[in-house]
User: Fold this.
Amino acid sequence: MTRDKQGKKPLELYIHIPFCEKKCNYCDFLSFRALPQVHREYTDQLCREIRAAGNGLREFQAVTIFIGGGTPSVFDPLLIRKIMETVGESFSLDPEAEATIEVNPGTLLRNKLPVYRSCGINRLSIGLQSADNGELAWLGRIHSFEDFLKTFQYARMEGFSNISVDLMSGIPGQTLDSWKNTLKRTAMLKPEHISAYSLIVEEGTPFGAIYGPEHAGSGQAADMGRGWPPLPDEDAEYKIYAYTRSYLDSQGYGRYEISNYARPGRECRHNIGYWTEVPYLGLGLGASSYVRGCRFSNVRDLDSYMSLDFAAGDGEEALAALHGPVQRLTKEERMEEFMFLGLRMVRGVSELDFAAMFGTKLTSVYGPVLERLKRDGLIRRDGVRIALTEWGMDVSNFVLSEFLL
Ligand code: SF4
Assistant:
């Protein structure tokens, strides 16, 4: 792990805002609706947590901040300012830190964006999902494509020069043509970064009840009688996936991870840090962390979170209660993570980094697996790095599972 000039180790901060205006039909994230008063009380408690956590992590310097959710942009922007100020007071911050906030185009952003800029946020991640208003309605999103266009224009006018747009494939009623239209209308705006994830039907969501595994194979939603359109079939999904790669490539977006594309030099530093074992600290309800070789997650119940007393003593007792059981990863688990996360990136993993980190050669741990995957055309090795081939990326779930120890 490299250190800065003051000898501090890099740390990524993730800050969770668990509030949304309305729950989307596919969403199983920790998010819910709450009154503005709750937003304010949560922010106060979050700031107490940030101060207590910063006290105990003096050997680190924050190199990225990612305010995610939920929908951070439902907040009054002054609450976001307060959070950013508290981070600045509580952590040593890299002056060049990448600071991202996730925004929803349905949350009236015009007056919020200048506040974000003025408090040090330099990257926006806009959740669009689709340029088709019918598809957005099936997803239960609160915005239209036109809302997104306005948000994007305001953001540029405000001087944001690093914008990411989130898109979603595999959604009800989507066709290859509608996806092409979504990609085209997005790329025309020239955002610096595009994420294109496939919808995952999660149990316990409205989509789980309509499109869950018990209905798989029928090609029909359970509730077709009420007009829910079917999900794209496997063939359409594959065509969508293959088209995404080639179209975005033709528009100057390099794929740097299974689902992420960027203009040169605009890859998301926060994500790359996560995939390359940079420690990260999750702050706020339910946020996960990986610090000093240990993994832990904050409590997920809002009342329990709000009742913690970070002001008592140096806050250590409250932090221990917040983090719950801490899991120290074994060397084998860390090796698995190194491979799982690193191979998600197109550049793959470095054999030298593996040796430096674990004191043993990558080939002495994974030799037979590497030979087999290379023979099958799923990975490539150039003597320095190991990476998935295009085909390996297509079947990444299978390939990555081969690295379990
Ligand atoms: S806006 Fe995002 S976090 Fe909120 S319900 Fe929709 S998908 Fe979930």
About this structure: Residues 20, 23-24, 27, 29, 31, 69-71, 104 surround iron/sulfur cluster (CB under 6 Å). The chain has a mean pLDDT of 94. Residues 351 and 382 are 10 Å apart (CA to CA). The domain at 331-401 is CATH 1.10.10.10 (Arc Repressor Mutant, subunit A).
